[in-house]
């Protein structure tokens, strides 16, 4: 994978899928996210980069209200999905998470068979009419997760028995199975070796055809390789947001330049 | 010399050795502790250990061996004609020891002087009367052979202890001197002390293991004795439990099945109470409760585990039994005859087991990684869906282990059964009837005045063995389940 290929590719404008307006996040007394405005486009990979502790993961977790499970976390401002505020009282966070799926830093397959892992979401949301339907969803999701060929003969063996890279692709297949509109990925490759990373990155690029993907990453090369839009976070501020090629070749803010050239981190 | 003083002297020698060893090592290094191989205190400990360890080992061995030796010497002294019919050499020896003890105590009280104790003759003075006057317990008339043996016993014993004291002190001094001689700046005292600590820990561990083996062996041998007197097939397959209390045996029915049935029935009732309540409490505490509620509720629940089982027994006898009788007794549904029943004991035992199940399950549920829950929430699952489908399956091996542990507690429980379930051994399906368990019967078989060599008493060991094998199997199954599934859920 050449770092420059994506930068040269043209970024055609897509319609806005999610929008954050003046979002502030507080952990107790800590002001973790300060006035962030971001528009996430449909069928696009958006990368969040920035040094550790800059708030990019926190912001990502706001997009599907995963922060609700943390007592001391408070979110202000508006986050819109298809123009509707996801923090509105009428929105069921549980339902929202089915629409905005999430893949985590560490592969976390459930202690169940590979089949049951993928069928988990469709089962709780009642997406399958019958067993054959469910089989089809599982197969389609595993194919999309680019892991079908490796596991098709052992769907009943435990998901925890797979290798790290396979587990992560299984988790992606599991997230895809609920037919989300947006897929959030929190450093999905940080626990993987380079080969598994390459496989997952390839997969992310394929997923772009059907979903809006948001990926948090520490690796600038990875952001450059897989994303069309990049947002640079620093100390809770969104410093710069724009087409990936522009951020990496011609950043407007000196802090962005310092970070991507390795002077701050 | 009393043992206490002897130990104190050895300790003092060791303490002095410690100081000497330390200062000698320092002096050898020219006062600069950096020149030493080890820290100065290690040289001190080296000396102290070499003074103490061999001496105390000798003392322990001596104290174990001397009574055996003295017994064999003295019992050889007793002429065969002194031993009555129906008596034995062992009984006479017990008499000798009692007399010797009496003499010792009488001398200590000042009732008789040492001279009299050594030379008194039972055919001239009434020694037994003197001893009785001194408040000593002497069962029968102390005869001349017994008195002679007792006097001899005292002398041999006293000489033995004197020799032991001298040898111990000499050994302590020798150890000190030996260790001091080897104390030089480059001596590896630290390694020696490390070895000593290693030996100490190995010793502690082997005492624990050997005691267990000893208990097991005594169970096995006594069970063997029992099966020599009573056919094993009747014990294991007998449907009737009716020991005769005459102590002569022969007419007893000692079938274990009614007792096993009672044990299982009561345990099942107890688990049926404890498992759901304990598990749900654990789920609430670990997943739903706020930290504040958790910090109050968990210790409260664990207080239940601290209540002595006899108190639960009283609770069963005085509160639960009468309560159940009111509902299910003759005034109510008419199923129950008396307050003591399987149901009473089972319910109370279930309450006792709740904290076991809940506390262990709570720890296990908390150990399920947050990543699992996040993964499930991230797919749009609700809290109870997450718990039911992800957390509980992940924690299941541990929970099963907790339940089996509670089961072995239930099987081994005694007091609640004695007070709550009655004493009648019965094979019945009615949970409102009185039944009894293996443990309760062990108590009643051994607290009677039956001869310890009769099958009625020995059956207790066979029952204990059965119980031991049962709980051992449960524990092995629990361990197997936990091991088998643990790797899968990492």
Automatic annotation (TrEMBL), chain A:
<dbReference type="Pfam" id="PF00005">
    <property type="entry name" value="ABC_tran"/>
</dbReference>
<dbReference type="GO" id="GO:0035435">
    <property type="term" value="P:phosphate ion transmembrane transport"/>
</dbReference>
<keyword id="KW-0547">Nucleotide-binding</keyword>
<dbReference type="GO" id="GO:0016020">
    <property type="term" value="C:membrane"/>
</dbReference>
<dbReference type="InterPro" id="IPR027417">
    <property type="entry name" value="P-loop_NTPase"/>
</dbReference>
<feature type="domain" description="ABC transporter">
    <location>
        <begin position="18"/>
        <end position="260"/>
    </location>
</feature>
<keyword id="KW-0592">Phosphate transport</keyword>
<dbReference type="GO" id="GO:0005315">
    <property type="term" value="F:phosphate transmembrane transporter activity"/>
</dbReference>
<dbReference type="InterPro" id="IPR017871">
    <property type="entry name" value="ABC_transporter-like_CS"/>
</dbReference>
<dbReference type="GO" id="GO:0005524">
    <property type="term" value="F:ATP binding"/>
</dbReference>
<protein>
    <submittedName>
        <fullName>Phosphate ABC transporter ATP-binding protein (PhoT family)</fullName>
    </submittedName>
</protein>
<dbReference type="InterPro" id="IPR003439">
    <property type="entry name" value="ABC_transporter-like_ATP-bd"/>
</dbReference>
<dbReference type="GO" id="GO:0016887">
    <property type="term" value="F:ATP hydrolysis activity"/>
</dbReference>
<dbReference type="InterPro" id="IPR003593">
    <property type="entry name" value="AAA+_ATPase"/>
</dbReference>
<dbReference type="InterPro" id="IPR005670">
    <property type="entry name" value="PstB-like"/>
</dbReference>
<keyword id="KW-0067">ATP-binding</keyword>
<keyword id="KW-0813">Transport</keyword>
TrEMBL record, chain B:
<dbReference type="Pfam" id="PF00528">
    <property type="entry name" value="BPD_transp_1"/>
</dbReference>
<dbReference type="InterPro" id="IPR011864">
    <property type="entry name" value="Phosphate_PstC"/>
</dbReference>
<feature type="transmembrane region" description="Helical">
    <location>
        <begin position="43"/>
        <end position="65"/>
    </location>
</feature>
<protein>
    <recommendedName>
        <fullName>Phosphate transport system permease protein</fullName>
    </recommendedName>
</protein>
<dbReference type="GO" id="GO:0005315">
    <property type="term" value="F:phosphate transmembrane transporter activity"/>
</dbReference>
<keyword id="KW-0592">Phosphate transport</keyword>
<keyword id="KW-1133">Transmembrane helix</keyword>
<dbReference type="GO" id="GO:0006817">
    <property type="term" value="P:phosphate ion transport"/>
</dbReference>
<dbReference type="InterPro" id="IPR035906">
    <property type="entry name" value="MetI-like_sf"/>
</dbReference>
<feature type="transmembrane region" description="Helical">
    <location>
        <begin position="335"/>
        <end position="357"/>
    </location>
</feature>
<dbReference type="GO" id="GO:0005886">
    <property type="term" value="C:plasma membrane"/>
</dbReference>
<dbReference type="InterPro" id="IPR022182">
    <property type="entry name" value="PstC_N"/>
</dbReference>
<keyword id="KW-0997">Cell inner membrane</keyword>
<feature type="transmembrane region" description="Helical">
    <location>
        <begin position="457"/>
        <end position="482"/>
    </location>
</feature>
<keyword id="KW-0813">Transport</keyword>
<keyword id="KW-0472">Membrane</keyword>
<feature type="transmembrane region" description="Helical">
    <location>
        <begin position="161"/>
        <end position="180"/>
    </location>
</feature>
<dbReference type="InterPro" id="IPR000515">
    <property type="entry name" value="MetI-like"/>
</dbReference>
<comment type="similarity">
    <text>Belongs to the binding-protein-dependent transport system permease family. CysTW subfamily.</text>
</comment>
<keyword id="KW-1003">Cell membrane</keyword>
<comment type="function">
    <text>Part of the binding-protein-dependent transport system for phosphate; probably responsible for the translocation of the substrate across the membrane.</text>
</comment>
<feature type="transmembrane region" description="Helical">
    <location>
        <begin position="264"/>
        <end position="288"/>
    </location>
</feature>
């Amino acid at each position: 994978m050449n770092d420059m290929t994506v930068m040269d590719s043209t970024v055609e404008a897509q319609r806005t899928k999610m929008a954050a307006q003046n979002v502030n996040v507080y952990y107790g007394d800590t002001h973790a996210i300060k006035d962030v405005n971001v528009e996430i486009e449909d069928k696009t990979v958006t990368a969040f980069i920035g040094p550790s502790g800059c708030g990019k993961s926190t912001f990502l977790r706001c997009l599907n209200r995963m922060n609700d499970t943390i007592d001391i976390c408070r979110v202000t401002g508006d986050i819109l999905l298809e123009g509707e505020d996801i923090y509105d009282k009428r929105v069921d966070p549980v339902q929202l998470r089915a629409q905005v799926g999430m893949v985590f830093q560490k592969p976390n397959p459930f202690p169940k068979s590979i089949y049951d892992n993928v069928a988990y979401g469709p089962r709780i949301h009642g997406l399958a009419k019958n067993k054959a339907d469910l089989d089809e969803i599982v197969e389609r999701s595993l194919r999309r997760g680019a892991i079908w060929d490796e596991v098709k003969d052992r769907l009943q063996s435990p998901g925890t028995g797979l290798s790290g890279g396979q587990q992560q692709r299984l988790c992606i297949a599991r997230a895809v199975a609920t037919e989300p509109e947006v897929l959030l990925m929190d450093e999905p490759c940080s626990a993987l070796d380079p080969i598994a990373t390459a496989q997952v990155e390839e997969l992310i690029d394929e997923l772009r055809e059907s979903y809006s993907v948001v990926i948090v990453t520490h690796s600038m090369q990875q952001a450059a390789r897989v994303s069309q839009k990049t947002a640079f976070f620093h100390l809770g501020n969104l410093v710069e947001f724009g087409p990936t090629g522009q951020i990496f070749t011609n950043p407007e803010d000196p802090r962005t330049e310092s970070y991507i050239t390795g002077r701050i981190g | 010399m009393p043992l206490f003083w002897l130990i104190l002297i050895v300790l003092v020698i060791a303490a002095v050795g410690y100081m000497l060893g330390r200062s000698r090592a320092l002096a050898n290094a020219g006062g600069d502790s950096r020149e030493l191989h080890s820290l100065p205190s290690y040289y001190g400990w080296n000396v102290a250990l070499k003074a103490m360890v061999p001496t105390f080992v000798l003392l322990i061995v001596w104290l174990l061996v001397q009574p055996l030796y003295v017994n064999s010497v003295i019992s050889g002294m007793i002429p065969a004609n002194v031993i009555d019919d129906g008596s034995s050499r062992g009984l006479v020896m017990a008499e000798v020891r009692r007399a010797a003890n009496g003499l010792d105590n009488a001398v200590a009280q000042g009732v008789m002087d040492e001279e009299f104790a050594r030379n008194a003759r039972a055919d001239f003075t009434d020694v037994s009367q003197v001893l009785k006057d001194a408040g000593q317990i002497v069962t029968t008339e102390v005869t001349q052979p017994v008195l002679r043996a007792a006097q001899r016993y005292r002398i041999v014993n006293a000489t033995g202890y004197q020799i032991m004291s001298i040898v111990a002190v000499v050994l302590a001094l020798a150890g000190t001197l030996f260790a001091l001689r080897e104390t030089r700046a480059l001596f590896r005292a630290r390694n020696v002390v490390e070895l000593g600590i290693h030996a100490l820990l190995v010793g502690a561990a082997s005492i624990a293991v050997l005691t267990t083996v000893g208990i097991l062996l005594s169970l096995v041998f006594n069970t063997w004795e029992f099966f020599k007197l009573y056919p094993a097939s009747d014990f294991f397959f007998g449907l009737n439990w009716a020991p005769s209390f005459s102590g002569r045996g022969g007419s007893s029915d000692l079938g274990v099945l009614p007792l096993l049935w009672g044990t299982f029935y009561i345990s099942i009732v107890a688990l049926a109470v404890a498992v759901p309540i304990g598990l749900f409490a654990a789920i609430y505490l670990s997943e739903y409760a706020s930290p504040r509620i958790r910090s109050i509720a968990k210790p409260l629940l664990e207080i239940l585990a601290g209540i002595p089982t006899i108190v639960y027994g009283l609770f069963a006898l005085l509160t639960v039994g009468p309560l159940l009788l009111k509902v299910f007794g003759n005034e109510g549904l008419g199923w129950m005859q008396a307050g003591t029943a399987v149901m009473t004991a089972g319910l109370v035992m279930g309450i006792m087991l709740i904290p076991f199940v809940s506390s262990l399950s709570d720890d296990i549920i908390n150990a399920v990684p947050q990543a699992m829950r996040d993964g499930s929430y991230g797919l749009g699952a609700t809290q109870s869906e997450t718990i039911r489908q992800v957390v509980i399956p992940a924690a299941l091996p541990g929970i099963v282990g907790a339940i089996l542990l509670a089961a072995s507690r239930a099987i081994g429980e005694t007091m609640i059964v004695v007070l709550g379930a009655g004493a009648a051994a019965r094979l019945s399906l009615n949970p409102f009837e009185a039944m009894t368990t293996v443990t309760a019967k062990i108590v009643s078989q051994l607290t009677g005045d039956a001869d310890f060599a009769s099958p009625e008493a020995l059956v207790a060991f066979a029952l204990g063995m059965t119980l031991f094998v049962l709980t051992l199997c449960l524990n092995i199954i629990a361990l197997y389940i936990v091991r088998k599934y643990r790797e899968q859920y990492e």
